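Per-record layout

source: Massilia oculi
name: DUF2325 domain-containing protein
length: 393
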Amino acid sequence: MCDKHASNVPCPADGLQGSRRRRVWELSHACHCPLVGVGLPLGGLRRLVEKVTGGKVLHDDYDIHVGTVSECALRTPVADAVQKELERRYAQHVQRFRAAKTTGQVEAMWDAAVAAGDVAGAFWAGLSHPRCTTALEEKMCRDIHMVQHQAGACARADINKFNAVVADNTRLEREVARLQERCNALGQEKALESERLENQLRAARAATIARDGDVQALRAELARLQASIPDLDTRERLAERLAQMETREQALRAQLAELKAARAPAPAPEAETAPAPIHVATVAMPVRLENRSVLCVGGRSSSVPIYRNMIERVGAQFAHHDGGLEDSSSQLDASLAAADLVICQTGCISHSAYWRVKDHCKRHGKRCVFVDNPSVSSLVRGLQEAATEDTQA
């Protein structure tokens, strides 16, 4: 408390019954310190003093407070300014305290304000009230003194809480910064991944469009080809049927040959080799086969030795393949590759073997003699045709 002038100011008489409210300089000087400290904020007090003095006050807050308290002991320009500021700031409190008609009512209103924590305005309104006695004034000063102590304790607790909150806030800010940095990194990764996927999607769409274009072009070409070949479906079905019939025919031929062989009487041992020299001697080969490889595809098993004797007597090499009855297709390809001349007996081979022989000879430009009936005379005619074509060429 700033009470160095308390003994110089007389207290109001307990029996004062007038209606005029007291001014600041009329109060006990013991009231000036808490009134200025509680009723006027430090910033507002500094501005008030600067306004009265007409210049900037360089003193600190404590010096301004002590000087203002000293000025309020008398009616000075500073005291007048303080009076006006208190009246303006706490006009509502003053108006509310006008309802108190006795000292007891003023005290009751003051106690209610202390309990509610609204002491600044009530302190001024109660001290300046015409029914405020010396005892009430002293009570109000004691109460405001304790309120200030409690406010200080609360302020210190609030400061500790505030410091803890600031520290926690600093920690949270660092955590938020770390999380924000991580979030930014993840965002960049997602952006790059999204860009990569978008590029892949665009490439896939472009490839799909290109394939769609190719499909449309191929469909148009297929439609054109189908239109250019009338009855294509019918021809395909007939070709498939023909292949089936040829396969069936080959099977029937094979069964017929087996039946004939089974019904024919077994020849005498000397008869097996006797006819061969006769035919070979009487048949002249129409083409020169020296040092050439001749492949015979198909034919009756009984005729193969005769063909071999005819071919090898003129200095050629003879090879045989049964046309798919027992020998494998891979053996046929190897035999065709090694042959210089191919004799294909079409009546005694499978359909697939026939097309394989024909395709191979056509692709490699190899001479091929097709014989319908498996006999020596048919073989000679085929070789004669081949010789005629060679002479014309």
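summary: Residues 3-16, 268-282 have pLDDT under 50 and may be disordered. The beta strands are 293-297, 317-321, 341-345, 367-371.
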